[in-house]
């Protein structure tokens, strides 16, 4: 069922990447002939925001770590998806998508779904950190940077964020010092000091601008090198063999929950079979099995009919293939 959030509306370009990763992983699991039984009971989720202000941060972190460690991989993945839908990428501490996925990788180091989502959402986590720095919440910004570093310690964006944080801290400290000086005296000496502070701020802004320009130039150069390397690799690949690949999801439309079923609290699934045409469109969608019968069939067919794929390649040429998927219908709060 489609779930809208402020995060998705603010970042529409994340839909095609994160939703595809999550739903592809879910669909792959559903296609297994032996679906695992649901966990007996989930560990209670207590967001870190509800922790008492009197508890030291180290104690809060320890409590959150113990809670995450007690959860299963399925519970962590479920909470991670809810955190994504709630625009909780890196905050609050102990109840955000990055911490859940990192804990998944602690328990299951080769979990592709967790690895893919961390990689795809890293730039948006960096944007959240940048907003936190702009809000002058420096301690929280440092925590978020450290969290991103656990996901991708060599990412050059971390260098930019750390520089931004250091510059913002220095500027805030200088501004605070300036305000104290202005409050204590209104003499000519205070006016001169204020002008000096303004000059320092201008110099800091100029230095920051130069740093950003240098970083942007380095990033552009790196991108050009990557593109050149990719082009060379593609040329070598094209020259050495003919590509074969399976059909790949390019655009997924979530099934709409039938209002009548929602009112009755009904849940279920629909197995569908369909053809992915050489142009990537979908045709011949039909139901092979469903539970309960006929309740969700139309919604599933309507959604799958609007899916789009990168077509399968056989000997380098697009070809039609038949795929099977299972569409699940679950009400919020029952997952």
Give the SSE map.
Layout (H helix, E strand, L loop, with lengths): L5 H5 L4 H16 L26 H13 L3 H13 L11 H11 L4 H23 L3 H14 L5 H28 L3 H53 L7 E4 L7 H6 L3 E9 L5 E10 L5 H9 L2 E3 L1 E3 L2 E3 L1 E9 L6
Antiparallel strand pairs: 1-4, 2-3, 2-7, 5-6
Describe the structure.
The chain is extended. The strands form 3 sheets. The chain has a 3-stranded antiparallel β-sheet with strand order 3-2-7. Strands 1-4 form a two-stranded antiparallel ribbon. It is built from 11 helices and 7 strands. 57% of the residues lie in helices and 12% in strands. The protein is an alpha+beta fold and 335 residues long. The N terminus is likely disordered.
Search tags:
single chain, 335 residues, alpha+beta, three-stranded antiparallel beta sheet, two-stranded antiparallel sheet, 7 strands, 57% helix, extended, disordered N terminus
